[in-house]
UniProtKB/TrEMBL annotation:
It is found in: Bacterial flagellum basal body. It comes from the Bacteria. It comes from Tunturiibacter lichenicola. The basal body constitutes a major portion of the flagellar organelle and consists of a number of rings mounted on a central rod. GO terms for cellular component: bacterial-type flagellum basal body, rod. The lineage of its organism: Bacteria, Pseudomonadati, Acidobacteriota, Terriglobia, Terriglobales. This is Flagellar basal body rod protein FlgB. Belongs to the flagella basal body rod proteins family. Its main location: other. The keyword Metal-binding does not apply. Structural component of flagellum, the bacterial motility apparatus. Part of the rod structure of flagellar basal body. One of its GO terms (biological process) is bacterial-type flagellum-dependent cell motility. Keywords: Bacterial flagellum, Cell projection, Cilium, Flagellum.
Length: 122
């Protein structure tokens, strides 16, 4: 997502990471019955902070994938699969709330920009 302000770029990156988080959760859910499959994910806050500190902006990070890793500390079933639908359901709900927050903040950012544009035309 390409936007025009630093805040808009950060929000765009936030939404991209949230989308990747949802995709990872969907992949985990899709493999709940795959023997030996290990739940994967990434630390959202750490990756987001790292990307903000890189200073590349959303445009420079477009297409960059968050590093997915096996999630430690989960109980594996006898077939080696450790996907928990309860955990994944919570992860999906969290990602949905993050996405809704991000879109509301981005909407406010665009409203501010539009307000500034309209102030110039008066």
């Amino acid at each position: 997502m390409q936007t025009t302000t630093a805040m808009g770029d950060a929000l765009g990156r936030y939404l991209d990471l949230t989308s990747q988080q949802m995709q990872g959760t969907a992949r985990n859910m899709a493999n709940v019955d795959t023997p030996g499959f290990k739940t994967q994910g990434f630390d959202f806050e750490e990756v987001f902070a790292q990307q903000l500190n890189d200073g590349a902006g959303a445009a420079g990070l477009e297409g960059v994938q968050a590093p997915m890793q096996d999630v430690d500390g989960l109980v594996a079933r006898p077939d080696g699969n450790n996907v928990s639908m309860d955990r994944e359901g919570l992860q999906l709900a969290k990602a949905q709330m993050q996405f809704k927050l991000g879109t509301q903040l981005l909407k406010g950012e665009f409203a501010t920009v539009m307000s500034a544009i309209h102030m110039d035309s008066k």
